[in-house]
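We store sequence with structure; for instance:
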Amino acid sequence: MNKISFSKVLLRRLLGLAAVIFGVITLSFCLQLFTGTDPAETIVRKQSVFATEEQIQAVREELGLDAPFGERYADYLKGVLKGDLGTAITNKKPVMENIRGALPVTCMLIILAMFWVGVFTILIAAVSVIFKGGIFDNVMRIICIIGICVPSFWLALILLTAFAVEIPIFKVIFDGSLKSLILPSISMAFPVMCISVRVLRASVLNELKSDYVAYAKARGFTNSQIVYGEVLRNALPAAITLFAQYCAALFGTSALVERVFSIQGLGYYLMESCESMDIYGISGSILVCAVLFVLFNAAADILSSIICPAYRRKLI
């Protein structure tokens, strides 16, 4: 694919990305509007159980909740563009400030988890293909099936009990060090790794049926040279897409693991917002997670098109 074609594909992807993000912002606004919870009433009730309707209405007017739909929607769009997601009901701080404080530790946790996923997925899938039908392949198939069914929070509790209580190698509570992120990152990575191994293995086996593989075998290349040299690169787009989707999804689904290990991350903040019915914290956290999901998917498409020539041709 020439540079002009690639530029058109990239432009089309960016326009689609902008449209999807706009839709996500709109859905986030609708979440605030149609959730059935009145933020003004929640704020007033936290201050006084015996609040009057006049007090609630005064707060509603102060927050602009009595404005017409179009005006509220326009104000929300302007606020999002400026990085203003509202003020949290729980601690009276800007939601974006709360998210900025919680996001770094979650990013560290997910980066470490996806590092395990990336390294072991490629290694295990490649070895399983090379020794297809062997003991290693069959054992990994059973482990992956079990791993897919295991909830990450249950695995987190098992690892915490085993390696922080019974065998005190790690600390029970997160202390800010990289070492304290190992157990939670493994808890989050294991189910994703099991799914990724199965997907990449199937993709590699499908690629092995291609004509260029038969030609490589005819030239005398070994299975290892074929798998690691060409097949793995052509089979990666499916795994990269899955990798990006799970990487983004973990920002929202990390809540239970963060709760088990007392990690004050984005998932923990989202769970706290849900418990306290903080609609601004909920919608802001979900918006950030959704935008990250869209961005990661777009990045996966671009990366796949760079790595795999066949994938680039499909995008034209």
